[in-house]
Design brief:
By secondary structure, the chain is mainly alpha-helical. About 35% of the residues lie in helices and about 5% in strands. The protein has a domain at about 10-35 and about 40-60. The radius of gyration is 16 Å and the shape is elongated.
Length: about 80
């Protein structure tokens, strides 16, 4: 008797980001109930990604959200 184990994506509840390509490759979006760090260089789309996720949650799922954005002006904050 063979038992198929669920894939990690099937075991984890996902929150859709509203970014179709990302949701597709991650099996549905970001893991629910967990903290996710977005890392990347300046201009890589971190803030836009986060805002899109918040807008999708608010508009389509009635979720509250908060956006925290840190600005670094040429190393002044180091």
């Amino acid at each position: 008797m063979t038992t198929e184990l669920p894939t990690p994506a099937a075991r984890t509840h996902k929150a859709p980001t509203g970014i179709a390509g990302f949701d597709e490759i991650t099996g549905g979006g970001l893991p629910q109930g967990r903290t996710t760090l977005l890392a990347g260089g300046p201009g890589s789309g971190k803030a836009i990604f986060g805002l899109q996720f918040l807008v999708t949650g608010a508009r389509h799922h009635g979720e509250p959200g908060m956006h925290w954005h840190w600005l670094d002006h040429g190393g002044q904050n180091r």
